[in-house]
Amino acid sequence: MNFIDEFRDKQSILALKKLIEQELKNPINIMEICGGHTHSIMKYALPSILPKEINFIHGPGCPVCVMPRTRIDTAIKLASMKDTIFCTLGDLLRVPGSEFSLLDLRAKGADIRALYSPLEVLEIAKKNLDKTIIFFAIGFETTTPMSALLIEKVIEENLKNVFFHINHITVPAPIEAIMSDENVKINAFLGPSHVSVITGYGIYEPIATKFKTPIAVSGFEPVDILESILNIIKQSNEGTFKVYNQYKRAVSKEGNVKAQNLVKKYFQVCDFEFRGLGLIKDGGLELKEEFSAYDASKKFDCTVQSKNENKACICGQILRGLAKPYDCKVFGKACTPKNPIGSCMVSGEGACAAYYKYSKVNI
Questions:
Q1: Which element (helix H / strand E) includes 211?
Q2: Which of 52, 71, 176, 346 is spaced 20 to 30 A from 60 at the CA atom?
Q3: CA–CA dist 224, 13 (Å, integer)
């Protein structure tokens, strides 16, 4: 059995489309939390085949997009230090800081490395014992266990030249912040499947109950998303607000308990500033005090004076679900993937990048 093709099957897509049309009674605003869902929705042109009464709202589920400028500037400051190898994941290198990006700094000679796996830090550290190795950890619950495992390995192997700047964030906290906004117009959520593999879908039940909002934890293929939308619409019609686990093939209610325990061993919750959302209580993670010897934020001077965001960029509004990429005056003009002004255009999971790549017309 091919575990991809069956979830892209044309007949299944058309059948689900018909069921959705039959069930839909009222307009509905659905926020997909994860940027991966945004890209799938745009890639498979789901807004164009579904009733116009279904409005997709793009959420803050891209860890690169929500990283505030102060943390980008902090990363640049750390990477600028003498005899330092700066390591991180993903598209963070391209996000503009107050003056320039990490990629610009690398072009000037700084040793900045984008990793496929955090565990690459171990070999880098062993081969460069005369250097300071800084791992700038980012991501939601999906990648946090990998950072925790790296910390454990660094301690086990007694590597004294590795330090961590922790920028891990959680999904429930920003969603609760968005739903607490008096201007919110969200009726339901598509929950992130890969995050839920770690956390379990039970983590969203308090949000669904508190805000009386259905949540469907969905896979990333079109059949997954359409099946999740169908459940959301049925719940809306029935007046229920439960967490539906569409992604049963990988997600359980409890999640990966072993990974959760590893995270709890090294990290504790803290308040975290999200781009566009502001400071969110318990929105992030930090190293526990007992591991402060490995904490780059305590070992080095991380104070920065950041400039305000570019006034033309509306990434903050997009991340709050108050605007779409086409509402931005510089989208696709001054701001493109090759010359990004805002983080939503930089990241491979960003909403602006998805619209630019997959759509040429206003939806």
A1: helix 205-211
A2: 52
A3: 9
> How far apart (Å, rounded) are the C-alpha atoms in residues 103 and 353?
18
CB 128 within 8 A of CB 111: no
Q: What is the DSSP letter of 91?
A: G
Contact 163, 295 (CB under 8 A): yes
What is the C-alpha to C-alpha distance for residues 169 and 68, in angstroms, rounded to an integer?
Answer: 12
Task: Yes or no: say if 344 and 65 are a contact pair by the CB < 8 Å rule.
Answer: yes
Whether the CB-CB separation of 286 and 270 falls below 8 Å is answered with yes
How distant, in Å, are the alpha carbons of 148, 167, 281, 350 from that of 64? 19, 10, 19, 8
Which residues does 257 contact at the CB level (< 8 Å), separation at least 6? Answer: none
pLDDT digits (tens, 9 = 90+) for 28-53: 999 999 999 999 999 999 999 999 99
Q: Which of 264, 247, 246, 26 is nearest to 168 (CA)?
A: 264
Residue type, 209: T
Q: How does pLDDT run across 249-287, given as a tens digit for each residue?
A: 999 999 999 999 999 999 999 999 999 899 999 999 999
DSSP 1: -
Q: Where are the alpha helices (H) located in the chain, listed in sequence order?
A: 10-23, 35-43, 46-49, 69-79, 102-107, 120-127, 144-156, 172-179, 193-199, 205-211, 222-238, 257-266, 296-299, 315-319, 343-346, 351-358
Q: Which of 204, 247, 282 is nearest to 33 (CA)?
A: 204
Which CA distances in Å does 74 have to 70, 195, 248, 269, 305?
6, 26, 40, 20, 9
The pair of structure tokens assigned to 140 is: 């939601």
Answer whether 181's CB lies under 8 Å from 274's CB. Answer: no
Q: Are strands 162-168 and 188-192 parallel, antiparallel or unpaired?
A: unpaired
| 190-248: pLDDT as tens digits | 999 999 999 999 999 999 999 999 999 999 999 999 999 999 999 999 999 999 999 99
